[in-house]
Amino acid sequence: MNARKADKTDKAWRSVCPIARTLELVGDKWSLLLIRDMRFGKRTYGELLDSPEGIPTNILADRLKRLEEAGLAVRSEYQDRPVRYAYTLTEKGQDLGNVLLALKRWGEANIPGSRALRQPAAPSRRKVSVSGTK
Amino acid sequence: MNARKADKTDKAWRSVCPIARTLELVGDKWSLLLIRDMRFGKRTYGELLDSPEGIPTNILADRLKRLEEAGLAVRSEYQDRPVRYAYTLTEKGQDLGNVLLALKRWGEANIPGSRALRQPAAPSRRKVSVSGTK
DNA sequence: ATAATGACTTGCAATATGCAAGCGACTCTC
DNA sequence: GAGAGTCGCTTGCATATTGCAAGTCATTAT
Questions:
Q1: Which residue would you say has higher pLDDT here, B21 or B3?
Q2: Strand D close to A27 by CB, under 7 A
Q3: Distance B94 CA to C12 C1' (A)
Q4: Which terminal Cβ of chain A has fewer Cβ within 10 Å, N or C?
Q5: How far apart are CA A92 and CA A74, in angstroms?
């Protein structure tokens, strides 16, 4: 059963610290990786599923829901005939790019073997994204 | 009787992406908060236990162990008579300040109600500061 | 009609987290 | 020198979150 208590009245944050609050939103095992992928141009459920880290399908569905609820991403039908959906970052979501950048820099500097290939691309519309770093 | 069971020395990272690798290290629910606290000058087990988020004792012990193993923090006896330990960040750990800063800024800008409270009571006057909030 | 695809759900494991106690080494009273 | 207190943990379970495999549903393609 779905035990989510995402009720509006549920305001029991761990604290008022902006770091803690931000982590409550995206501080799980997958959210930031999804945001990374979206910044790289991945847009559909299938594309997002495809990353090398191998996110489970149920988690992907759940995270997308949460990101949407948090206003970090939006889901839209981008095609009608076979109905297909695209997830894209809102400005708020895009702004997490700074967090990603900091994480990436730290990793490159401190984790031997980790290797970034490219910088996250700006929201380019039609282009199949480069696989930056995955 | 299971084939393909990896042992503890298994180094199968999720991917080679520096973001993913960094998150494997500190991307859990507590690590970054501990690093935040250490940057604020908290040093002992008891002090770290005291943050408003309320980390459980077993998790704290475990995270400190992990941070040490990862080379982000060190444990040292800072007193002998009643033997007492202090945890402090290594340079590597300190460098995560940029990640914290990015998280903090995002939170302040995007999460109404989150609020940094004061400047770090840092043991040294350093340049990058993660201003306080807890 | 059958197969395929995209976007998910559902049902359980397997892990990770959370809570309350307890434990050992001291030390500090009395 | 017998408690009582403090610090730094550990241990034993609950509960929650994740992970894996499979199944569903609406369409579409063959």
A1: B21
A2: no
A3: 42
A4: N
A5: 11
Query: Does strand D come within 7 Å of the CB of A58?
Result: yes
Per-residue tokens: A12: 């029991």
Kindly report the number of other CB atoms within 10 A of residue B106's CB atom: 23
Indicate if the pLDDT at residue A123 is higher than 70: no
Cβ-Cβ contacts under 8 Å for B56 (sequence gap 6 or more): none
What is the sign of the dihedral through the CA atoms of A41, A104, B9 and B68? negative
The label of the residue with tokens 């306080």 reads B132
Query: Distance, angstroms, CA A30 to C1' C8?
Result: 18
Question: How do strand B84-89 and strand B73-79 relate by DSSP bridges?
Answer: antiparallel
Helix (H) or strand (E) holding B32: helix B31-39
Cβ burial, residue A104 (10 Å; 0-12/13-18/19+):
buried
- Position A1 scores a pLDDT of 36
CA distance A28 to B31: 12
Nearest neighbour of A106 by CB, restricted to B29, B96, B134: B96
pLDDT band of residue B33 (cuts 50, 70, 90) is: very high
Inform me whether the pLDDT recorded for B81 exceeds 50: yes
Indicate the angle between helix axes A31-39 and B18-26, nearest 10 degrees.
Answer: 170
Global confidence as pTM: 0.82
CB of A28 within 7 Å of some strand D atom? yes
Q: What is the pLDDT of residues A35-77, one digit of tens each?
A: 999 999 999 999 999 999 999 999 999 999 999 999 999 999 9
**Residue in A closest to B23 by C-alpha:** A29
Partner residue opposite B108 with nearest CB, options A18, A29, A109: A18
Whether B53 contacts chain A with CB within 8 A: yes
Contacts of B10 (CB under 8 A, 6+ apart): none
